[in-house]
Predict the 3D structure of the following.
Amino acid sequence: RGHACSSRFSLRQKERRLQRGQCIHTRRAEGGAFSGVRSFERAREKRRHASEGASAERRRRVEQSTLTQHSRQARRSAPVRSAQEREANPSRAAAGRMMMTSNALQQRRGVVPQRRAVPRSVRTHAKKAAKQKNIFEGQRPWVELKDGVPVDGPDLSCVVDGVKFPNPFVIGSGPPGTNYHVMKKAFDEGWGGVIAKTVTLDSSKVINVTPRYARMKSKSNSKEVIGWENIELVSDRPFEKMMEEFKRLKDEYPDRVLIASIMEEYNKNAWEELIGRCEECGVDIFELNFSCPHGMPERRMGAAMGQDCDLLEEVCGWVNDAANIPVWAKMTPNITDITNPGKVALDAGLEGLAAINTIQSVMGINLDSLRPEPCVEGYSTPGGYSSKAVKPIALAKVMSLATMINEKYEGKKSLSGIGGVETGMDAAEFLLLGCDTVQVCTGVMIHGYPLVQNLCAEVQEFMVKHDFKSIDEFRGKSLPFFTSHTHLVQLQKEAQERKKAAKSGLKSDAEWTGDGFTSETESMVSN
């Protein structure tokens, strides 16, 4: 017992004692060697191998994880093959995986420099449209639109300058038509047409600021926006990029109406190039921006051109000669008589007019800071006023243009109405004054693209109420009831005379009747 190590010592303690010679072990009869020394050496070797094995396993897992990560990056950067290519060369996939794994391992070891994985190309197919729903949650009428056509109810389609619209509602030129994604959203929600934000050949000169909007709210309802001012310029996106997106939209929505809003300086070559390039993309109609009230007047663009009838006549002539599709001129309300530039544009050969653009305005002054709104670094500039507060002004301008078109052109020119439209009832008023289509811009910025479904449903309700089967049946129906103030005085005088004559009573006793006795008596009472 004295020659054996006590079991209370650990292997490490026994090993240290062996090295100091303090522990004597019995010999194995058959081996003749110190069994204790052998057992301790075997235990120490086992621990060493176990430690090395664990380290190797950890290294293997890290390496595998690295290889997997690099392999994924390589797969993402690899070009996508078609089904025919995969069938023709099925072994290419395995070889590609081996090659990618080898490259990833070399990159990890530093043999070749690592490169960022190339992202997948932008999706070239249209994403499936989301299901339509009533954004007003039952508070306003709603109808589902399929490719812009109501699934039930009266027909809202119209043909304008040879172009068919599934419904008369068009996205007005501005932020709701800035790029492919928002214009695609408009088509998916059912808008009859989309006018893109105004493009020019050189967008590098267009620099917008932020904030660039200011709004006026109702005093009785703080959530209700009644006025909206903007100091935003035309599109600041590269012209080539906009042309790519026009073509992509027409490829994906060949039956929908895409309208290009264009604006240039007083330069014939620039206008001709702009028209030719847009036509190559397949746009259906041009809208000439002669009306932006705050957009680069120093370059004789926008309203600066639309207010100068001599300049307007020359530019409209260039455009009419160069264009092969219908052209509308967008009129500015910031002029004494809007029919003067309207006549100039139509006499030059253009197919139609659009009115009105925004009204030059100053939204207000902040009484705390004493600075105007919208405020940019303490300063501002007059901008364009829109939203429902401008509707009465827009209706007056539209009425004047529609009357001029009827009298001078026998109603054979088109008119697109703009200004404060947020409900189907608003739109019906513009249609009753002779508009062929109705544009909405600020209303979309406030309520969203699904607004068109409510507009269509409300116009349909109006049509059912009056038993109209199509828009053509009531377009311009209210125009004949406008006249001069002198004529109003004459009409009222005639009405008073008729009323007085009816009050004069019976001329003889032979005129009394039994059925109308009381009313006949009343007609001869003086008080």
